[in-house]
Amino acid sequence: MNNSMIYEWAVGPFFICGIGMRQTAVQDLLEPVITAMGYELLGIEFISQGRHSLLRIYLDKPEGIVIEDCEKVSRQVSAVLDVEDPISGQYTLEVSSPGLDRPLFTLAQCERFVGEQVNLRLHTPLEGRKKFKGQLSAVTDGKLVVEVDGKSYEIPFDLMEKANLVSDIKF
Predict the structure, then answer these.
(1) How is domain 3-96 classified at the CATH fold level?
(2) Buried (b) or exposed (e) across 125-142, using 16+ Cβ within 10 A?
(3) Phi, psi of 96 (to 5 degrees)
(4) DSSP string, 52-93
(5) What CATH number should be reported for the domain whose range is 107-165?
(6) Domain map of the chain by residue range?
(7) pLDDT (tens digit, 9 = 90+) per residue, 23-75?
(8) Three-class secondary structure of residue 112 per DSSP
(9) Helix, strand, or coil here: 132?
(10) Cα distances (angstroms) measured from residue 108 to each of 32, 94, 103, 113, 140
(11) CA torsion through residues 37, 43, 44, 45, sign
(12) Are the CB atoms for 93 and 34 separated by under 8 Å?
C-alpha cells in the first residue's frame, strides 16, 4: 500500500460523505485504537477519487488537538491500516482536528452544540430546500430542530449530507 500522510490542524468545513460499508468497517477498526490513545474519534470520511482518494479522520480531546496529536495518531493509524488493509488501492491519509467549522457526524455530537449556529445540507429537499443555516435549537427523536429566519424546521438526521458548526470568528 502506498499511503502519503498529511497533517492538518484547525481546518475549515468539509463535506461529510454518507457512511457506507467501507467507512463503517474502517471506523470500527480504528475507533478502539484512537480511543486507547486518549482521543475521541469524531468521524471518518472516505472520498473516492480514483488514484487520488482521501481517507480523512477527525479527532478531538477536551484540551483540543495540536499538530503533534495528528502526527501521533497518523503514525499509529497508518500502521493499523497497513496491517489490516481495509481499503484497496491508493489513498491519502489525513488526520485532522475538527477545526473552526466543526463537522457534526452523529446526533450525540449535535446534542452537544444545541444553541449554536449550524450549516446543513441535505441529500433530499425538505420543504423545497436542501440548505439550512440557522440556530440548532433542539435534537429530538432523530431530528434536528433548526431556527432559520424565524421559522422552525424539524430535519431528520438521516437526510443530512453535510452538517457543521458556523464559526463566529471573522477574518
Answers:
(1) GMP Synthetase; Chain A, domain 3 (3.30.300)
(2) eeeeeeebebebebbeee
(3) -140, 155
(4) GEEEEEEEE-TT---HHHHHHHHHHHHHHHHHH--S-S-EEE
(5) 2.30.30.100
(6) 3-96, 107-165
(7) 678 899 999 999 999 999 999 988 888 778 899 999 999 999 999 999 999 99
(8) helix
(9) strand
(10) 18, 24, 13, 9, 11
(11) negative
(12) no
The contacts of residue 72 (CB under 8 Å, 6+ apart) are: 37
Q: Which of 154, 153, 32, 158 is nearest to 105 (CA)?
A: 158
For residue range 112-139, list pLDDT tens digits in order: 999 999 999 999 999 999 999 999 999 9
pTM: 0.80
Cα–Cα distance, 139 to 117 (Å, whole number): 13
Nearest Cα to 86, choosing from 58, 44, 36, 37? 44
Which H or E run contains 117? strand 117-126
Q: Is 163 exposed, middle or buried (0-12, 13-18, 19+ CB in 10 A)?
A: buried
C-alpha cell at 105: 457526524
The HSE-up count of residue 61 (CA atoms within 13 Å, CB side) is: 15
Question: Residue 74 corresponds to which cell in the numbers above?
Answer: 497518523
